[in-house]
Amino acid sequence: MTETLMLLCLVGVLGLAVGSFLNVVIYRVPRGESLVRPGSHCPHCGNPVRARHNVPVLGWLLLRGRCADCHAPISARYPLVEAGTAALFVAVGTRFGWSWELPAYLYLAAVAIALSLIDLDVMRLPDRIVLPSYAVAAALLIPVSLAAGDPGAVLRGLVAAALLYLFYRVLSLWGLGGGDVKLAPLLGFYLGWLGWSAVAIGAFAAFLLGGMVGAVLLALKLASRKTRIPFGPYMLAGAFLAVFAAAPVSGWYSNLLLV
C-alpha cells in the first residue's frame, strides 16, 4: 500500500511538470516554433515568466489568471492541462503499478493530451509529435517484451498496427484525415501489446465516442453535417478507454457467452 501511494505521488508530481511542458508543446508546435528558445514568456507583452510563477497550477492561481507585468488574462487551459495530465498519469500509474511498461504508457498519455488539444485547435496531428512516438514506443516496449520472454506481445502489436493502418487508410478514401491515418498504427501497437480485446475496444470506442459527440453537437445546433470535426481526440480517448477497461469488458463478455 505504501509503495503504491508513493508511486501515485511520484507520477502525479511528474504529471504536473509534464503538463507544464505540454502547454509549451501545444502552443508552439503548430506554429513551428522552438520548444527551447525563448523561455516561457507572456504572449502579449513578451516578458519572461518568473520562476515562482512557473510552478504548475499554483503559479496561475497566484497570478489570479493574469500576467504579472501587463495583466493580460492567462487562459485557464494552462492549469487545466497541468492538472489533467497529473490526473491521467495517476490513472495510468494505478493501472500499471511498478512495472517496466509504465513509462511507455505515461509517454502515450502525454502525447494523447498534446495531440488532442492541437487537433482541436488547428485540425492537425503534427508529424513532429506523431512520427518520433513510433521510435519511443518501440524503445520502451520491445525490450520489456523480450526481457519477459514474451515476443508475442511485440508481434501482436505490429500486426495490430498494420491492421489499423489499413483500416484507416481505407477510411481516408472517404475523407478521413491523413494525420489520423498516421496515428492509427501507433495506437494499434500500444493496444496490440496489451491484447486483441484492447485493439477491438479501442477501435470501436473511437467511433462510438465521435458519433455520440457529433450527435450532441448536431442536436444543440453547434455543428452541421458539413462541419469538420477533428477525429484524433476520439481515437486517443478510445485508446485509453481500452487501456483501462479492456480487461474487465472482455471478462464480462466472456462470462456472458458462458451463461
Features of this protein?
mainly alpha; 259 residues; 2 domains; single chain; globular
Topology as H/E string? HHHHHHHHH
Number of domains: 2
The computed structural class is mainly alpha
N→C terminal distance: 36 Å
Keywords: Cell membrane, Membrane, Transmembrane, Transmembrane helix
Domain Prepilin type IV endopeptidase peptidase: 107-214
Subcellular location: Cell membrane
InterPro entries: Prepilin_IV_endopep_pep, Prepilin_pept_A24_N, Prepilin_peptidase/N-MTase
Walk me through what this model shows.
The chain has 259 residues and is an all-alpha fold. The chain has helices spanning 2-28, 58-63, 77-96, 102-122, 127-147, 151-172, 178-194, 196-219, 232-258. The chain crosses the membrane at residues 6-27, 104-123, 129-148, 155-176, 196-220, 232-253.
Condensed summary:
The protein is mainly alpha-helical and 259 residues long.
How does the SSE layout of this entry go?
Blueprint: H1 2-28, H2 58-63, H3 77-96, H4 102-122, H5 127-147, H6 151-172, H7 178-194, H8 196-219, H9 232-258
Helix pairs in contact: 1-3, 1-4, 3-4, 4-5, 4-9, 5-6, 5-7, 6-7, 7-8, 7-9, 8-9
